[in-house]
Records
---
Amino acid sequence: MKNCNECKYAVWKRTAAGKLHPSGEGHCTYKWEPRPLPVAFYFIGKKHPEPCGGQINRKRAHAEHCPYWAKADAKN
């Protein structure tokens, strides 16, 4: 998907009343784990890279589809 709406990893900012905040802001909670490198390769400076970012917005689409998007379970 090109947006994070309905994704199970999306956590949206909420108002004091518990409604979705009008700003549309949120963050992605996907825990990215780097794959092990072949023994002939190495990371420069750090043992493992650390991704940055994670900010999402219900009102904007991304340029590309997210490979980790997964539909959230229906809340009862």
---
Amino acid sequence: MKRLGVFLCVLLLAGCLGKPFVIPDEPIPTRFKIYQIEGGICIDNQGLGVLRSNLNDLKAYADEMRKILEGLK
């Protein structure tokens, strides 16, 4: 029983001393308009900028999550 108590204390201290990590918030995409035309779609310049920003935010989020997962290995 004494060994179990010591083991639990060691686990508790190891957990408290370990480097904490924070899971980042998932990015909220900004809405933009896409216009349907015959034979395809059309995105205005402002919408294209918003789409690029959304994709960059998702890539940054994926990179942060990848770093966290690699750190947990």
---
Amino acid sequence: MKTNDQNDNKISRREFLKRGILGTLSLMGIALLGNTFFSSCEKDDDENDLAEAEAEAERKKKEEEQKKGQLF
């Protein structure tokens, strides 16, 4: 009974090291991978692509208007 009472409030060295190493490895993994987890969530690239598409559409519209103006 004494050993059970002593073990209830304490963790073994093995368990302590295991928890410490797993915590350290998880933090190192997150630090190494950095922002790659959330790179697909970025909107900057999508907004730039949209702006480029709108600019191209406007350019084509102006070219068509110029062609129509030259025909008349």
---
Amino acid sequence: MIVESKQRLTFRPDYTDNHGIDIQYTKKTESLHFFGWYDGFVGIPGGDINFIEFCKKLGVKKSTLKKAINEI
């Protein structure tokens, strides 16, 4: 299940809050922040990465970004 809110996505395998991954986008810094949690209590350390660097490290092609821009 994916829960969406403004500039934030939360991925949960099921409908419980027991574990998941959260991704937030910050417009001002153009960066993504990742973190997670397990068992409702244990936090999984995350980090920040610039969106452009994120795309470069994943090998996202310009053609894919152009498609995304056209859909936005």
